[in-house]
Write a structure and sequence with these properties.
- By secondary structure, this protein is mainly alpha-helical.
- 65% of the residues lie in helices and 6% in strands.
- The strands form three sheets. Strands 1-2 form a two-stranded antiparallel sheet. A two-stranded antiparallel sheet has the order 3-4.
- The N and C termini lie far apart (56 Å).
- The relative contact order is 0.09.
Length: 285
């Protein structure tokens, strides 16, 4: 097997979020070279805080999330993405992971621009945003909001996910008064999207379906032979994330049961709330 074939084989074995990590690393290395050779070319891919500048460079609402300030910036973001991705993809589909990731980046960028536009007295001076933090934060807060009572080991103690999620949001709010106020504002945008997505999904509403359709359409433009094999596809609006409403509700219920059973195994039946006991009783019927 040649080196090229070996690389293609290893890339094919990566899950979708690991591929995002690989893309981020490649872009980081390319950006390092471009900075040294062409200097300010990266400026065209960073997200500006000024609305007028953004309107000239609308693509930056995506591209900023693939740029990183330095080695430690990308290291921590990609480590977070790797560990969160392992949890997420054990429960949800790759397409949903991409929906939340990219929508988190978009919401982070929107919060960033709106903050500097609406509150110029607080967020002083024009600046730029780079990094995948908002996208990663969206995935993390989604998990915390979807299964808030699930416990994870944090060093030597077990902590409920919603405690961790709330702590990160508090730190981001406090960070608005620090030196990286714009970055923390973007984190809050990603967190908002993750929370909203999870709460709507629990109700059976996949708010990422519209975005997913747009991305599928864009991807189809780059597929070989797509112009000669066009066909109309009527999407079943009664489906959520590829499931019928009934299947989707069953999927959600099973996830809730798994979380409750996990809690019983760790802390006993008496640790359940009244609502959890009632849900388990109804599920048993």
């Amino acid at each position: 097997m040649s080196l090229t074939e070996d690389i293609k084989y290893k890339l094919a074995r990566l899950n979708v979020l690991e591929k995002i990590i690989a893309i981020n690393v490649v872009v980081f290395l390319i950006a390092m070279v471009l900075r040294s050779v062409l200097g300010g070319v990266i400026y065209w891919f960073q997200l500006p805080s000024e609305l007028n500048s953004f309107l000239v460079k609308p693509w930056t609402i995506f591209t900023y999330a693939f740029l990183h300030f330095d080695f430690f910036h990308i290291l921590f973001n990609m480590l977070w993405l790797y560990f969160i991705g392992r949890i997420f993809l054990n429960l949800f589909s790759s397409k949903m992971a991409l929906n939340i990731y990219f929508l988190g980046a978009i919401f982070g960028g929107v919060f960033f621009i709106l903050g500097y536009t609406i509150l110029p007295g607080f967020f002083k001076g024009a600046t730029y945003l780079v990094g995948a933090s908002a996208a990663v934060r969206a995935l993390f807060i989604f998990i915390c909001a979807y299964m808030p009572n699930k416990e994870v080991q944090f060093f030597t103690i077990n902590v409920k996910l919603w405690y961790l999620g709330a702590a990160f949001v508090v730190f981001d709010v406090l960070g608005l008064f620090g030196t990286n106020s714009g970055g923390n504002l973007a984190h809050l945008g990603g967190a908002f999207l993750g929370y909203l997505y999870a709460k709507q999904l629990l109700k059976g509403n996949d708010i990422g379906r519209g975005f997913e359709s747009i991305m599928d359409t864009v991807a189809s433009w780059f597929k070989a032979g797509s112009k000669t094999n066009l066909k109309t596809v009527h999407k079943d609006k009664s489906k959520v994330g590829g499931f019928t409403k009934g299947e989707f509700n069953q999927f959600n219920n099973q996830k809730k049961i798994d979380v409750i059973l996990d809690k019983i195994s760790k802390s006993g039946y008496e640790s359940l709330t009244a609502a959890e006991k009632e849900f388990l009783f109804r599920a048993g019927k």
